[in-house]
Specification:
Layout (H helix, E strand, L loop, with lengths): L21 H38 L13 H13 L1 H24 L5 H14 L15 H14 L3 H15 L4 H4 L1
Length: 185
């Protein structure tokens, strides 16, 4: 059985039920409201980041970053605007929220869901891990293969295809050891 952490904002209780995904689902239910707060904050972070960049670009229209960041007037102004408009504050708030989300995400990532509800919990974590990384982007970020791997494993588990993946992996490992394709077919 999974050991669920007790967090300040998400009180996950162990449940005795016949649902094999009960604890995974409980972790997902605790994670979801945190994710919704995080997504709202992420949009605000992007808005304030764009405003910061626009203010800096207006004051330094043709200025390239020069020297060390501490010595560059454009960077100094960027830091000043970001502090005044709340960009730094929302970033720090997001980091605190992430520290509450990570233990739940780790539990969800370790599970192999057997129900659609369990798969939903895995998808919630994938949404979090795929948020746009730049204030200038609206597209999900798929550079982190971890979120893809977690979804892949969850879908394979849920659909009963684990043996297919395990068997295929074993065949490729045999090839790595030097077996011919004929020997492992």
């Amino acid at each position: 059985m999974l050991q669920l952490p007790q967090t300040g904002t998400a009180n996950v209780r162990r449940t005795n039920t016949s649902n094999p995904d009960a604890e995974l689902i409980a972790a997902g239910k605790a994670f979801e409201p945190l994710l919704m707060k995080y997504l709202d904050g992420h949009v605000e972070w992007a808005r304030l980041g764009r405003a910061t960049n626009a203010a800096v670009d207006a004051k330094f229209p043709n200025h390239e970053w020069e020297g060390g960041l501490a010595d560059d007037p454009k960077w100094s102004y960027h830091a000043e605007v970001a502090k005044k408009n709340g960009y730094h504050a929302i970033g720090n708030k997001q980091l605190r929220l992430c520290s509450k989300m990570r233990p739940l995400a780790d539990i969800i990532d370790e599970a192999a869901p057997t129900t659609v509800e369990g798969m939903r919990a895995v998808a919630l974590v994938a949404i979090w891990e795929c948020v746009p990384l730049s204030v200038d982007s609206s597209e999900p970020n798929f550079d982190d293969n971890h979120s893809h791997e977690a979804l892949f494993k969850a879908v394979v588990s849920l659909t009963g295809l684990s043996a297919v993946v395990t068997g295929n992996r074993a065949r490729f490992k045999a090839l790595e050891r030097g077996a011919s394709a004929m020997q492992i077919a």
